[in-house]
Structure formats: C-alpha cells, structure tokens
Design a protein that fits this description.
The complex is a heterotrimer. Chain B is mainly α. Chain B has one domain. Chain B has 17 helices and 2 strands. Chain B starts with 22 loop residues before the first helix and ends in a 6-residue tail after the last helix. Chain C contains 7 helices and 7 strands. Chain C is globular and about 35 Å long. The chains are: A mainly alpha, B mainly alpha, C alpha+beta.
C-alpha cells in the first residue's frame, strides 16, 4: 500500500483539482501540496523500505500490477517528486487555465512515478505512453509562439518511441520460454538468444534514444524545450528524459546484456558524438532556452557513454549524472524562465547587463552563474561528482569516446562563460530595463534547486549512496580493466534490484 | 542685463523658429526656460536632490580646503579625510551672520545633518577610524575624482592653468614646499632630486583648493533653494534656474586662491591678488571638466582604448553626468555610485516618497536619485548657459533681430553638444525616464 | 581739457564706475599719461547686474580690477579706428570684439556716445558692463 500511495496522491489530486472553482488559488496550492506530500512519502519510504506489490490485473495479457522500489528507482522517484513540486512552484501565480494545467502536470507525474515503480514491462509501457499525452498537451496549449509545431514534432517522435517500445516489450514478453510473462524478474533471466536480443535491443535503443535523446534522434528536443512553458521544460528535461536513461539501463543493460555488450562500442561512439554535437551547438545558440536544450543533449551523450561502458563506477556515474543533471537542467530552465518572465525575451543578443545591481536581475544571474558552473562540472557542485564518475568509470572501457566527452565537458565551460558574459555583463539596455525584481516566491524553486546542487557537490554520497548496491550487479565490465565480464554467468543471473538492497 | 531671466520672455517672435533637432529646448531657453521641462515634479525632484547634494558637499569643500591648506604634501596622507574641527567650524563665506554676502539663511558651520551622519553613519556610533574603514562615511573619493578631472583636462577656460606653469607659481610653490618639509632632510632630498614631481603634486593641490572654493559657494546656494522651496517659494523650474543664475553673478568675482598654512603661518601659493575669479577660474572649468567630460570609468562597463572606444582627443570626451548612463550605479568601480551613496543619506522625505512610488521603490533608489541628479545638473547647466548668454550676449527680450539671432546661434551651439547619442537631454524631457 | 576721470566725474552718470575705479586702486593708473581708450558703462549698466555682483567685486579689488581693465585699451582710438578691426586686445588681456559698426556695438554693449576726447585718451560711453569670455 505504501507504494500505491506514491501513485495515488498525484492521481487523486489530479482528479480533484479540476473540480475546484475557476480562479481558486487552491488549485496551485493543491498541486504543490500533492507534489510535496509525494516527496515526503518518498523520503519516508527511503527510510522504511516497502514491500513489493504484485497483484493480477489482466492476466490474459500478462499484465500484472507489479510495483517495487529499489536503490535504482528510489532516487529517480525522489527526483520526479521534487521536480514536480519545483515545477509547480515555478509556474506563475496567475497561471492561465490553472485547473487543466496542474491536472496535466500531475498526470505527467503519475506516468513518471508509474514507470519508475513498475516491475512489469507492460505496466511500464502503459505509464510510458501515458506521459506522452499530458506533456504534448502542455506544450501545445501553454507553449511559446511555435508551440503547435513543437507539440506535433514532440508527439510524432514520442509516438515512434512508444511504438518501438511496444514492439520491444511484446517481443520480450512473448519470447519468454515459460509463456507470456512481462514481469521484470522473468525478463532478467536472460533466456533469449543473441540474435533475439539484438533485434529487441535495436527497438529499445530507438525507443529510449528518442526519449533521452541522443544524436541523431534529437530532432524534437531543442524546439520542444524552447517552446514548452518553463515548468513543463523543467519537468521534461529534468525527469522525462531521465526515463530514457532508466529505460536503457533496465531494458538494455539488464534484460539484454549480451547484445548490449556487443554493441556498446557503437553506443559509446554515439554518446561521444552526442556530447560534442550538443556542446558545439550550445556554443552557437542565440537563444537561452535552445542553449540549455543543447547543453542537455550533450550531457545525455555522456550518460550514454557511461551506460555503454557499464563498469560499476560508470553505472554509479549514470545514477549520479541523472540526479545531478536533473537538478541542474531544471534549475537552468527555471532561471531562464525567470529572466524571460522579467525581460520578455530569452534571446541572448537582446540581453546584457543583467548583473546590474540595482536595475538588473543580480540574484537570478548569480544563481545562473552557479548553475552554469555546475553544468560545466566545476568542483564543489553536483555536476563535478557526476562527470568525474562518468569519465573515470568509462575510461577503462572506452578511452577515446571518454576523451571526446571530456573535451565536450570543457566546451560546456565555453558556452557557460559566453552566455554569462553576454547576458550578465555589459551595458543594461535602459529602454528595456523596466521590470521589478524577482520576488522570493519566484526565487524559491531556484533556491531549493541551487541548495541541492551545492549540497550534492559537497556531499556526493547524496548522488550515489542510494544506488551503489543496486547498480553494481548490473556491471558488464570491471572498473579496473577493459576485460568484458559480461559473459560471467554469476553476474548475469544474480537476482538483483530487489527492495532488500535499499541502503538502510 | 536684468536680474531675472524669466522677466525677459519674448512676447512675439522676431526670428523664425529654429530647425535644430532640439528646437523645442532651444525655444524654451529663448523663452527664459531651462533644458529641463517645467513640471511640478521636476521642480520637486531637483530641489530635493540639491538639498541632498548640499549636505555631503558641505563636507567636500571643507575637506578639500583642509587637504589643500593643511595636509598638503604629507607623503602618507592616510588621515586626509579626518577633517579637523577647525575646518568643520570654518565659517562659510556665504552663510551665517558673519558673511558679507549671505546666500543661505542658515549657520556658517558644518551642516547639522552632516555632523549627525559623521557621528552615527549607517551603522551606528563607533570610532571614526572604523567608520572610515567600513566606508560608512562621506565619500571624499568622489570629490577627488572631480578634482582630478579638472586637473587632467587642464585648460578649460580662465587663466588658472596657465598660471600653474608660470615662474611666479613655481617660486611660490618652491617656497611652500621647502617650508613644509623644513627639518625633514629625506623629503627635501627627494625634492632636490625630483622637483617636478613635487611641483605637479602642488598643482593638484591647487586644483583641490580651487574645487573647494567653488563648492563653498554651491552648498549654501543649494541649501537656500531648499529652504525657499519648503516655504513655497519657487513657482517652477525656471525660477529655480534663475536663482542659480543670480547666484553665479553674485559670486562671480569671488577670488580663487591657494594658501598653505604651517602652524599660523600662511604661504600664498596662488595669492588672491592674481585676480582669479570664481566664475572664470573655477565654475566654468568645473562645468566643462566634470559635467561634460570627465573620464571613462572602470567597472562593469569597460572601455577598450585600443579598439577606439575611447576618443584620441580629450576634447571628444563625454563621460560627464550630462551623458552618463546612470543605470550601472551601484556596481563596483563606478565613481558616481559614491556620490549617489552620499546623497541617499540626506534625501528629503518628499523625494523618498517619489522613489517609493516608482520603479523598484527603495530597492533601486540609487539609480532613481542618480537620474534625478542628472535632471538637476541639466538645470544647473541651463543656468550656466543662461548666465553666459546674459554676460556675453543679449537679453532675451531684445528687440534687435540680429541680437536674437546671435542668442539663437549661441543656444544652438550649446545644444550641438547634446547631439551625441549618449547625451541624456532627450531622456530628461520625459518624466518616464527614472 | 580734462582727464578721463575728471570728464567722467563731471557728467554725473558714472558714479558707480568711478567708485569702482577707486575701490580697485586704478585711479592712479588712469590718471597717468596713457593714452587710453575707455569703454565707460553708465550707472544703469551696473545696476542691471544681478544683486551682489558689484558688491563681491568691490570687496575683492584684484578681481574688480580685472573686470575694469577689460574695459580699457592701451592707446587712444576713435570710433572710426575701432570699427576698422574685428577685435581689440584689452588691458586685461582678453579680446574685445567689435560686433557692429552702425549702430556702434562693442561686444554685447551698444556705444551710446562715442569719441569723448580727453587729455589722456578717448572715452566711449556704453550701456552695459562687458565681461571677458
């Protein structure tokens, strides 16, 4: 029941909110309360590991209500709950059509939590598909000027991803020797032949590569992120894209390890290309949202590299990077949103001098500097811990792609400083600078995220402590050598990812 | 020449309208007005800021004279801003009962609000040294920046700068330096080795005295304007400008000099008998060097001389308050910030009220009062322009069209200086510029 | 014939000017052989200056002398000679422009009576105090 609560809180809130009178301030407050409650519940479950749930639902289809929480998904659940709360806080107090907006945000949250908690591939698929609808609607209804095109593109890419995943999940279920079974425990038994694994992995890579995204499947991402309203962009970049990484870890690495091991050099190369492509594009952007979007693309490339390397250390890096990047990218979008709200634009050439102490946005820009430094991997901030683990963990497996990713990480500093220099320094445009300073209410989500980015940088076990025991058994290679240990059956067959592995 | 510019308004135009870009402003000047539009709010703003300016100015002039006359060439002038009681009590020549020409009705000693601030500051009562180090004090650095602008731009009219190069000046300075360092073989030895360096320092101190004597006049002028306004005295911005015009004429003949006091003995480095006057040797150079020119400042807006962002010719410098971008006030390295910070302590309540109602309220008070200051200095510059027109050209109600055309040409030439894109003249025409 | 100062005193409209000459200590010099050309402002011209202007100058003789010597040229010049040049150098040092020949205007002052010939020079009566600059 404890686990169900995580799902029920946003579900019930999402159903009740539309019944409130129009214009009631309790719509926003209710959504915030639901997200915070969920976060509290998640924290409680961290300390009191819940029992897994397994109940029949549609046994004919092999669909069972199987939910569980382990060291891999706990941090992601917490991240999803936290960023939902922050996204609600970052939404304007006078949000237009608030009942629908917040209901859709909570629906997205239900889908995310469902996907993370699912212990059944079909259930995962349902949740995965569920997310697509509210996010598309959120972009299409509340997005920027080009929202229609952005939503269509997002929907198209999302649908392809969904279909690919559907095919992969069905294949996984049908090909089980013991008959139709979508349960993770069954899928983790690795009873598929190498050829079967490769076909399914191709579908899995397509599905989650689109979601992550990585080059060349990223066509929807810059446009959608730049057109989505700020809270939605925070949630999408912060959590929804992490679902792609989680999917690769679960379906690729865990369920199809042989194929994964075989293809991992190519995946590492794709990761490296994504990283360098994202960073170079970010440098060229003239619009802050697109810059942040490409920055995100670059970091997703690093994630893929770490996934491909699959050493114990790099898998630690995957979790750490998911959390750190989730916090940082949400913070960046939150700050860009604040700047846009005040100045009316996010175009870099139109902005300058925002650090101006009296008439600029010194507080926002100060946090922005910190967030950019964190994204660039400056020590003492969350991004450093994650990138260090990724690079150190991947180096033994794929030195050249790691080097390229290191270079991309260096380029992060280039666009970070370039953005800050253009927007923060220089002369404040006297005609434009006619806005009030940001209120503490508006600063709150950015402050919370900044605090977490700082704390995670100084206390890295916050990023890695959850999942050490959960990711180690997934490793295909040793951290010490380039030897592929994927074929060692002891590793493959160990029953991993059960709740008992939660840190006490 | 008549006493008030306002009474000279022309009845019917004898010359065609101006086609200058600032024709409106020129016509207003020809009608006896100011470059600043005549609105009740403008009047309130400028009078309020004159008062807030006059209080720190009362410290500036006293300390400038203290530095020029007492601290002089002290090689380690760490305490030059720790003004002596003697100079705090030094009677202002234009205020108090002892003054021969009384401009301000108030007392001749340092202003009570200034003394109160020096005592408590923003932080509270503590030793003077801590106030100084914590920078909770009057920012004399601003006054010295103005002095350096005058020194640096040099010949801005008058004969002061020429005199600093004369043999008479050099002989006076030499006598003063030797007297000041009497019994100090180290400094006298250095003087023998590097006489020009010492001489140049004395020239800077002469400009320090010059600026101190200039501001000794302006402080009571501004105090009196504030008192007149509080009584309901000024009807509009032109009245306020006329008051300054009259003030300029009244003290035009005030001697500008530089004396050094060692104990009770006075060494005349620039004697009064040189005939230097307040108007020609102090006021006009000050306006040119400080209001118009000054120098680009370091800070968030940096200038790259190699990239041609700083003009090669000093005459093309336009970084003064009439051109300044006030928005970066509050950033590090922006000298006007020091002045704004000084003025913010002495704002009259009605001005604080205006700031609270606009833009970010108290949060960006420094910028708002900076823009008010800019408005008020456009009014002072208008007074200077009208005074010059009065002294060198013709009455506004002259009936000779040729005389009126001469006035017109003069006004247009003055307005030409504001054709530069960075000039704030167009901005201050609107009340929305805050 | 009388000297410049004697002539001025006899007319009765130069009281302020004469008092100023005394205050500035210029009497002796102006009574010398010269010859000088003096642009003499009438009393009304001084009265037209804003209040305090004359007082401050009278209190400070060197500064007053500077303004007064701006009204004096070295040498005796008639109107005819003066209008032949655009500008003359005053005893003070600053130039005095001749802006108009007819009516005869010196700087921004109009000459009311020209060519009053005296022992040690020529006086031209002007209706406004002229200032250097």
């Amino acid at each position: 029941m404890d686990l169900l609560l995580l799902l029920l809180i946003p579900l019930l809130a999402g159903l009740v909110l539309p019944l409130l009178p129009d214009g009631s301030p309790w719509v926003r407050r209710g959504a915030l309360a639901a997200a915070l409650l969920q976060l509290l519940d998640g924290l409680w479950l961290w300390q009191h590991p819940p029992a897994a749930i397994s109940a029949g639902w549609l046994p004919q289809l092999g669909l069972r209500l199987e939910l569980g929480l382990d060291g891999l998904t706990l941090p992601l659940v917490l991240l999803a709950a936290l960023l939902t709360a922050m996204a609600v806080m970052a939404s304007p107090v006078d949000q237009s059509r608030p009942r629908l907006f917040f209901a859709l945000m909570l629906a997205t949250n239900v889908g995310l939590i469902g996907a993370f908690l699912a212990r059944n591939a079909l259930l995962f698929l349902l949740a995965y598909e569920l997310i697509l609808i509210p996010t598309t609607l959120l972009v299409a209804t509340w997005g920027g000027e080009r929202r229609a095109g952005a939503a269509i593109r997002f929907l198209t890419y999302g649908a392809v991803s969904g279909v690919a995943l559907l095919a992969a999940v069905l294949a996984l279920g049908w090909l089980q020797p013991g008959g139709l079974n979508f349960s993770y425990t069954a899928l983790a038994d690795h009873s598929l032949s190498a050829v079967q694994q490769r076909w399914i992995l191709a579908l899995v890579l397509l599905a989650f590569g689109l979601k992550l995204p990585v080059v060349p499947l990223h066509g929807w991402q810059p446009l959608t992120y730049s057109q989505a309203p700020t809270p939605v962009a925070m949630l999408m970049s912060g959590v929804v894209s992490k679902l792609g990484a989680y999917g690769l870890l679960r379906f690729g690495l865990e369920f199809l390890p042989d194929a994964w091991a075989a293809w991992s050099p190519w995946l590492a190369a794709v990761g490296a290309i994504s990283a360098i492509y994202g960073a170079l594009n970010a440098i060229a952007q003239l619009e802050m949202r697109r810059l942040v979007a490409y920055s995100s693309l670059g970091h997703m490339g690093m994630l893929l590299l770490a996934l491909a390397a699959a050493t114990p250390l790099s898998l630690q890096g995957v979790i750490a990077q998911m959390l750190a990047h989730g916090l940082i990218i949400a913070l960046l979008f939150c700050l860009v949103g604040l700047i846009e709200l005040r100045t009316g634009t996010s175009a870099i050439p139109e902005l300058s001098g925002l650090l101006n102490p009296q008439r600029g946005l010194p507080f926002t820009l100060g946090l922005m500097l910190l967030a950019l430094l964190a994204a660039a991997g400056v020590p003492g901030l969350a991004g450093f811990v994650a990138e260090l683990l990724v690079f150190e963990g991947s180096w033994v497996a794929f030195p050249w792609p790691t080097l390229v990713c290191l270079l991309a990480s260096g380029l992060t500093a280039v666009y970070a400083i370039r953005l800050f220099n253009r927007v923060g320094f220089g002369r404040l445009d006297n005609d434009r600078a006619d806005w009030v300073s940001t209120s503490w209410g508006e600063r709150a989500p950015a402050l919370v995220l900044t605090a977490l980015v700082l704390v995670a940088g100084l206390w890295p076990s916050m990023l890695t402590g959850f999942s050490e025991t959960a990711t180690a058994p997934l490793a295909l290679r040793s951290s010490d050598a380039v030897t592929v240990i994927a074929m060692a059956p002891a590793n493959l067959n160990s029953p991993n990812l059960n709740p008992a592995q939660l840190p006490a | 020449m008549s006493a008030t510019v306002a009474s000279e308004r022309i009845k019917a135009p004898l010359i065609p309208p101006s086609t200058h870009r600032y024709a409106d402003v020129i016509h207003r000047l020809e009608a006896g007005g100011s470059m600043l539009p005549d609105t009740p709010e403008n009047l309130k703003q400028i009078i309020g800021i004159y008062k807030a300016y006059a209080v720190p100015m009362d410290f500036y002039w006293r300390d400038l004279l203290y530095i020029a006359e007492r601290v002089f060439l002290n090689p380690l002038p760490a305490f030059k801003y720790f003004i002596s009681q003697e100079y705090l009590d030094r009677p202002n020549s234009y205020a108090g009962d002892q003054s021969q020409l009384r401009i301000w009705r108030g007392g001749e000693k340092a202003h009570p609000e200034l003394l109160e601030f020096m005592e408590r500051g923003e932080t509270g009562r503590m030793p003077k040294l801590l106030h100084h180090l914590w920078h909770d004090r009057v920012n004399m650095e601003f006054a010295e920046a103005c002095m350096q602008a005058m020194l640096w731009h040099q010949g801005m009219g008058g004969r002061f700068n020429d005199y600093l190069e004369s043999d008479a000046y050099k002989a006076n300075a030499d006598r003063a330096i030797k007297a000041y360092f009497k019994g100090n073989p180290l400094m006298l030895g250095l003087y023998a080795l590097f006489p020009d360096m010492f001489l140049e320092q004395v020239r800077q101190l002469s400009y320090t005295a010059n600026l101190g004597l200039f501001w000794e006049v302006m402080a009571p002028v501004f105090f009196e304007m504030s008192d007149i306004y509080d009584e309901g005295g000024f009807k509009g911005v032109p009245d306020a400008m006329d008051f300054i015009v009259n003030g300029i004429f009244a003290v035009a003949g005030r001697p500008i000099y530089h004396h050094l006091y060692i104990g009770d003995e006075c060494y005349e480095i620039i004697p009064k008998s040189e005939g230097f006057t307040w108007l020609y040797e102090a006021a006009l150079p000050y306006v040119e060097a400080v209001f118009y020119r000054t120098a680009p400042f370091r800070g968030t807006k940096s200038y790259n001389a190699q990239a041609g962002q700083v003009p090669a010719d000093q005459a093309d410098f336009h970084y003064g308050i009439l051109y300044a971008d006030v928005f970066p006030v509050g950033s590090a390295g922006i000298p006007p910030t020091l002045l704004m910070q000084d003025m913010v302590h002495f704002l009259p309540p009605y001005l604080k009220e205006i700031y609270r109602e606009h833009k970010r309220g108290e949060e960006d008070e420094l910028v708002q009062l900076g823009i008010t200051f800019q408005r008020s200095m456009y009014n002072v510059t208008s007074a200077v322009i009208q005074a010059l027109r009065c002294a060198l050209l013709y009455p506004l109600d002259d009936t000779n069209p040729e005389h009126l055309m001469a006035n017109r040409r003069f006004f247009e030439a003055q307005m030409d200086r504001f054709l530069r894109p960075e000039a704030r003249l167009p901005d201050i025409q609107s009340q929305n510029y805050r | 014939m009388a000297s410049i100062l004697e002539t001025a005193a006899s007319v009765g409209v130069f009281n302020t000017l004469l008092a100023a000459v005394d205050a500035a200590g210029l009497r002796e010099a102006l009574e010398g052989p010269g010859p000088f050309t003096v642009f003499a402002p009438v009393d009304d011209a001084f009265a037209a200056l804003p209040p305090g202007t004359v007082q401050t100058l009278v209190d400070n003789p060197p500064q007053l002398a500077r303004i007064l010597t701006y009204h004096v040229l070295s040498g005796a010049y008639s109107r005819e000679q003066l209008v032949a040049e655009d500008s003359w150098s005053s005893l003070e040092g600053a130039p005095i422009p001749i802006r108009c020949k007819d009516p005869f205007e010196v700087k921004n002052a109009t000459v009311v009576t020209a060519d009053v010939v005296c022992d040690n020079g020529v006086v031209h009566v002007i209706d406004r105090v002229i200032l250097p600059g």
